[in-house]
Write a structure and sequence with these properties.
Layout (H helix, E strand, L loop, with lengths): L13 E4 L12 H14 L2 E4 L11 H15 L4 E4 L2 H8 L4 E4 L3 H15 L5 E6 L12 H8 L4 E7 L3 H14 L4 E4 L13 E4 L6 H12 L4 H16 L7 H11 L19 H11 L4
Parallel strand pairs: 1-2, 1-8, 2-3, 3-4, 5-6, 6-7, 7-8
């Protein structure tokens, strides 16, 4: 069923997965991270840390805790953060922030059981279904599972990263019927216009340009047709950055933020896929379309 029934001007809730930049030495560039968290919040987006864009699956527990503490020092409780188990969800929530339950092998098999365990420990959290294109342990739920998640009171929303529109439209209709306040957070960096159908978002692409995403969102809320021009230019950037292999988008993000003068190097952890030498020119063209230089 085509989604014309879902289109509605409204205020969009935007969450942006913040890149954790590195220095050439391999150490984390904490000052640039702090600045990007602050920049994201100042634009009007909610920073999301310890997500895939922040290499959280590669970080040890002490580093993830350090990320939480630094973020809380900058924005207080106004952020969300990836959590890989019940204990990490508790750590996030006791700082006032909202945990996002990052898929792992157990959650892929027992998502309802795990979420009910989480609901006994925290009063609010965000679910997360993820395409295997991003990570081998990812799993896209069937609609019956989604309905069960939707009715866990403490789960206030779920990030949907199938990279396909139709299952997200199905989730939006189910949400509207069953629990209208539930957040359908698109993670579809290849279809960022899902917001026009009622999705909010938690995207990696928005870390490239939180300022421009926030402007796009304001245009939609105002019913301004310029939304489409800016959205199309941002989508062009997304199509370049999130082409296969999809996990290499994090290197694209580092290159783009370096072009913007926001970080000093495009270094990434050793086992993160990297783009080839032509990526810089592709991204420079994307930025030119966005009027950045």
């Amino acid at each position: 069923m085509l989604p014309s029934d879902l289109i509605r001007p409204r205020t969009i809730i935007g969450m942006s997965a913040v890149l954790l930049p590195l220095l050439d030495s391999g150490a984390f560039d904490w000052s640039s991270f702090d600045a990007h968290v602050a920049r994201t919040a100042a634009a009007g987006l909610t920073p999301a840390v310890n997500m895939d864009t922040g290499y959280a699956h590669l970080l040890d527990a002490a580093t993830k805790t350090h990320v939480l503490d630094r973020t809380a020092a900058i924005v207080g409780a106004e952020f969300v953060a990836g959590a890989f188990d019940v204990g990490e969800a508790h750590d996030v929530r006791r700082r006032g922030a909202t945990p996002v339950m990052v898929p792992n092998e157990r959650m892929s098999r027992e998502v309802i059981a795990v979420y009910r365990e989480v609901a006994e420990v925290v009063d609010r959290f965000i679910g997360f279904e993820l395409s295997p294109a991003f990570h081998p342990s990812g799993w896209i739920w069937d609609l019956a599972t989604y309905k069960e998640v939707l009715h866990i009171e403490q789960c206030i929303g779920a990030k949907h990263s199938s990279l396909h529109r139709e299952p997200e439209w199905e989730r939006l209709r189910l949400r509207d019927q069953e629990r209208p306040d539930f957040l359908v957070l698109t993670g579809n960096d290849l279809a960022i216009d899902m917001v026009v159908y009622g999705s909010d978002y938690l995207l990696g692409l928005s870390t490239f340009a939180p300022d421009l995403f926030a402007e796009r969102d304001r245009l939609w809320a105002d019913g301004d047709a310029q939304f489409y021009e800016l959205n199309d230019a941002l989508q062009h950037l997304g199509n370049v950055a999130f082409r296969p292999p999809v996990p290499a988008y994090r290197h694209s993000a580092a290159l783009f933020l370096r072009l913007r003068g926001w970080i000093t190097t495009d270094a990434t952890p050793a086992n993160v896929p990297r783009r080839d030498a032509g990526e810089l020119e592709l991204l420079r063209d994307c930025g030119a379309r966005l009027g950045l230089w």
